[in-house]
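User: My advisor asked me to double-check a structure prediction for DNA helicase IV before group meeting. I don't want to rely on an old file, so could you generate it fresh from this sequence?
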Amino acid sequence: MPVDQLAPDILASEQAHLAESRKALQAMREHAQSLSSDAAGDWVSQQILQSLLDQRVAALADHPDTPLFFGRLDRNADDDLPRTIYVGRRHVHDGHSKPLVIDWRAPVSRAFYQASPGDPMGVHLRRRFGYHGGKLTAFEDEPLDTGADVGPSRILTEEIERPRTGPMRDIVATIQPDQDEIVRSDLGTTVCVQGAPGTGKTAVGLHRAAYLLFTHREKLARAGVMIVGPNKAFLSYISSVLPALGEVKVDQTTVADMLGTPGATEEPEVAALKGSARMVDVLERALWAHIVKPTEGVVYTQGVYRFRVADHEVREIVASLRGTTRYNPGRDALTQRIAHLVLVRMEQRGESPDDRVHDKVARSKEVKAVVESVWPKLTPQQVLFKLLSDPEFLAKAARSDLTAEEQQLLLWRKPYRGAKSAKWTAADAALLDELNDLMERTPSLGHLVVDEAQDLSEMQLRALGRRCRTGSATVLGDLAQGTTPWSVSSWETVLKHLGQASGEVTELTLGFRVPREVLDYAARLLPSIAPHLAAPRSLRPGAGSLSVRPGGSLTEAVTQALDKEGSIGVIVPDARVDEIAQELGAPVLGPDSTEDHRLLVVPASLVKGLEYDHVIVVEPADIVAAETRGLARLYVVLTRAVTSLTVLHDRPLPEQLAAG
Ligand SMILES: Nc1ncnc2c1ncn2[C@@H]1O[C@H](COP(=O)(O)OP(=O)(O)OP(=O)(O)O)[C@@H](O)[C@H]1O
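Assistant: Sure, here is a fresh prediction for DNA helicase IV from the sequence you gave:
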């Protein structure tokens, strides 16, 4: 496709449109700044209005380095909009409300991403713009009414190959048609995306969040949108994308932050068992086993009178409540109903007690004592503590759902002294969350984006599912990159445990990050780790991007990479991180890292979801040997490179890689 830098007139007129749009944006901002919150009636409304105005002013800031628009459509359409529209990150209009730039999320912008010679969608020319810094330097024309396909866009390839420094960039200018389908799917639809490394799953998830917030602003501002990623380093890497799209009110979190940071670790087989949804019934029985059959009634004394509620009456209330409410509301309801019966007795004696008396009875020590003995106040930690430390209690709760060996596996080898001093693992955190929800309903958000979902256990998925129970989700992942002991093998299973069984599973198949030569090399591992998945495809051939060096020198590889532009990740077996960092005098990526460095030593276990222009992998055999799903880990490691991958090894390569 021609990048038409040789048409100076056109380029100059497009640059003039950019200048006009920038000026108009400046005017919109000045107007917003001139608005006053004084018009609001009271102090509270004034504060709310001021905060809205501040947000509006911030949203109208012009970032000189980011293109205000990146595309143009010349349309045949007969609607209220100009025939020529410019597509950009946000709406900009002139002083007469004429749109100069239209938000990429507006319905009319859809054609920019979706129109094709086969289906021009009323567009006869699509123009893409190339930028250098904030300067418009090139454009690329695609006539859509001639029926001829003009081939891949050079602006797209250049965008992908632009050297990386710092965090992930947005892809709003170059979203591809199949990605756009996912980005623009309805709020009510849960979408699950399987995609090979670098197919843009993370990018698509973030852009979908931005699209939904634009399209359903009010509803989602109330209900909330949350992005869930594997660790803080990953969140830091993606943290700039949504703000660059003008969306600052999205929470980004990890499962550990959401459910509680683990204070202990455990054997993979124990973690896998605790992660299984078979634990659900066990937990439910464990909780409800705390309710004791009432053997005594209540005697409430007021002055010289005693009002009695018989034991069988308490039994009846408990029986009617058990299993029909969550644990805590059930406990409250038991208190209220006992108090009610006391009040009935008072009325039978001719009194007319009011609400205050009702409250007093409900809070009396007599009623509290019976409720506590029958339906005790509990914390999730107390229940799980009992389950993991008391073999008899576990056997009672487990029934035939867990074998004797499995029960043995669950019990702590060295029990803690109490629920408060117990140290919980990542798997325990999900069990505690399940118990918490059995006791008290977990509030739901409007939309959840879950990245690297293949690594979540069934119990973690249930925990996330609760948080989008009345909303929807975007679930992203790659079954071949599953590295946890509980990694799932099908997306249908993921959706089921998430409580979104009707969600749509879709696939992204074209890789943008990894050059073909490197991707083909990594794909030699696929038959061993995910035989049912098709080999991934790559947009760019990347001839010469792969170098495998037996006995190769690390210092030499790093020096070569430093001679080129872009970021460098030296990915090493976790056990060798310190040694190699010292050798290179380079910083190490930690789970909580948020800083940018051009050269980083990266532990293999932390590199999921990240990418570097140049990747140097040290000793693949050790990376594989370090964990049960070591081959899948190696697949993740080998698919992080945008421009070049160098593999250094002294030990023989894993046989799947060697046999090429
Ligand atoms: N349409 C696109 N235009 C430009 N760049 C793109 C596009 N789609 C994806 N990319 C780029 O490709 C790279 C990989 O994207 P992303 O991290 O979203 O992939 P992923 O599928 O989540 O990968 P992984 O499975 O390895 O986590 C990123 O640099 C992203 O910006």
